[in-house]
Amino acid sequence: MRLADYKGYDSITIQCHDNPDADTLASGFALKKYFESLGVKETKLIYSGRNQIQKPNLKLMVEQLGVPIEYVENVNEYVEGFEDKKIPGLLITVDCQYGAGNVTKIPAMNTAIVDHHQQEVEDRDDMQINSHLGSCSTLVWSMLRDEGYEIKDMNIGTALYYGLYTDTNSFAEIYNPLDMDMRDAIICEKSKISLFRNSNLSLHEMELAGIALIKNIYNNDYDYGVIKAYECDPNILGLISDIFIQVAEITTCVVYNELRDGLKFSVRSCTKEVAANELAAFIAEGIGSGGGHREKAGGFIKKKLYEEKYPTLHTEGYFSARINEYYDTTTVIYAEEYDLDTTDFAEYQKRQMPFGYVEASKILPVGSHITVRTLEGDVDIDVTEDLIIMIGIKGEVYPSMREKFERSYRVVDGSFFDENGNSKYDLEYIPTIHNRDTGEVMPISQFAGLCMSRGGTKIKAKELRGRVKVFTSWDKEKYMLGKPGDYLAVRSDDAHDIYVVERDIFFKSYDEVK
Fold first, then answer.
1. CA–CA separation, 137 and 165 (whole Å)
2. Could you say which of 123, 163, 177, 254 would form a disulfide bridge with 26 (CB–CB 3.0 to 4.6 Å)?
3. If you average pLDDT over residues 367-384, what whole number do you get?
């Protein structure tokens, strides 16, 4: 689905979901401005449902940014004057899906869908859904970028930024690199974001937060807490979590509430042994999705899937049982001081295979603080004279030192990416280098040379039956996570070079020594 394909319509109506939030307002606002720029004769931005916009932050957003939203109180009256009582031209639903339960179905001649939630309707051509994104604002920004439409209007940029901000719990639940790219690239007026943010809590919601904090579950074996809150804005869950994690006895916490279509939850962690984004993904595994940052994260569990899998388990019991399972089934390894018993490990030898590499000091000054953004998350590195940034065939990135690089790899002619900067290995997302000192963003494809692993490097490895977290000798603050089916490996010539290799990468990279 391309937005430019709809420029032939004389009339385009953009519909937000009922009880609009900042994300749907921003998405619809940006699309309206885009179609106006194409010369569409008539564009409208509407919403319906039982309630008009009431939240103070949304009222301020509409007023301060000039969002031209119209409320349709009576659908029958609204379509009365149209041919066949249907909206003419095209109706696009944003941040929702035409025919789904959270948006009033308004009869229309033609319809299209732009959304970032899980698909609820049948497949169709006029539909753009990316449920991996944190906000519909990001999806719209990406679609506009694909059309070559540059967002110069500060109000549109501010709206999209705020849409992402609110839908990812103040950016705490961002885990898709495209969301991060929009956050970093979009123009916005930060003073207005501050104004909206500080007008977000009503007296009633403050009372809900206070009541929730009183009714908590505490587990003193693992020092975690769980709170069930009454139905409230997702941002309120984050507020409760931020307070709860400050309790001295609590190192991780989960706050959740029950919504019409599932369970929304917020996660906090203040211990390096538990990354909040990883715990969130574990909690929702198989029945929803979760992610975010190491200290702040969140997720959503689909009601239908939950009820199918746990028909008799109440929600408090589910969260407690799932977190207990997380702790009970996870082993933590500190590689630098760990004596790994390799008695039942098999020996493997590394194959010759292609890698990308970047000599960091040739493109950035030594001492620069950089972040390499990948699909798996951000990798923070300080540039040294000997730093080599390695890129694997799945787009995974990890640091190496020159001495180890020269011992294990040989440079060959060519590039890891083609002349247009596109991946030769079908990467879902091409990593980018972010200079945290200057704010500069550089596609890694501009600098990546090609090297081949020398092969012959021997390791001992074993398939994992449970979950393992490895704090490697080169990163003592962030762990590598191994899941059942992945491989725990150690170099044969260095007993403390312990690491995890994903299962599919392992079998592409190593052969067993017979």
1. 10
2. 163
3. 85
pLDDT tens digits for range 170-224: 887 777 888 989 999 999 999 999 999 888 777 777 787 888 888 889 999 999 9
429 Cβ contact list (under 8 Å, min separation 6): 177, 178, 374, 375, 395
Give me the phi and psi of 218, to 5 degrees please.
-120, 130
List beta partners, residue 371: 380, 434
Residue 53 near residue 83, CB atoms below 8 Å: no
Please check whether residue 16 is in contact with residue 45, taking contact to mean a CB–CB distance below 8 angstroms: yes
Q: Which of 263, 267, 256, 254 is nearest to 298 (CA)?
A: 267
pLDDT at 471 over 90: yes
Contact indicator for 453, 355 with CB cutoff of 8 Å:
yes
Q: 10 Å Cβ neighbour count for 391? A: 29
Going 8 to 11 to 15 to 21, the CA torsion angle's sign is positive
pLDDT tier for residue 1 given thresholds of 50, 70 and 90: confident
313-334 pLDDT tens trace = 999 999 999 999 999 999 999 9
Which of 105, 120, 112 shows the shortest CA–CA distance to 12? 112
> How many angstroms separate the CA atoms of 34 and 150, rounded?
10
CA 252, distance to chain mean position in Å, is 20
Task: Quote the CA–CA distance of 379 and 395 in Å, as a whole number.
Answer: 12
Distance CA 130, CA 141 (A): 13
Taking residue 8's Cβ as centre, other Cβ atoms within 10 Å add up to 10
Helix then strand then coil, in percent of the chain rounded to 5, is 30, 30, 40
pLDDT tens for 61-120 read: 999 999 999 999 999 999 888 888 999 999 999 999 998 777 899 999 999 999 988 777
Q: Give pLDDT tens digits for 107-135.
A: 999 999 999 887 778 888 899 998 778 89
- Sorted by sequence, the CB contacts under 8 Å of residue 54 that are 6+ apart come out as none
Alpha carbons 116 and 137: distance in angstroms, whole number? 9
> If residue 69 lies in a helix (H) or strand (E), which one and from where to where?
strand 69-71
**Section 29-52 average pLDDT:** 93
- Output phi, psi for 15, to 5 deg: -110, 125
* Torsion sign (Cα): 130, 151, 59, 52: negative
Q: 107: helix, coil or strand? A: coil
State the first-to-last Cα distance of the chain, in angstroms, to the nearest integer.
Answer: 52
* Coil, helix or strand at residue 176: coil
Sign of CA dihedral 322, 291, 229, 248: positive
Q: Which residues of 86-120 are buried (b: 16+ CB within 10 A; e: fewer)?
A: ebbbbbbbbbbbbebebbbebebeebbbbbbbbeb
Share of the chain above pLDDT 90, in %: 57
Q: What is the DSSP letter of 363?
A: T
* Beta carbons of 357 and 404 less than 8 angstroms apart: no
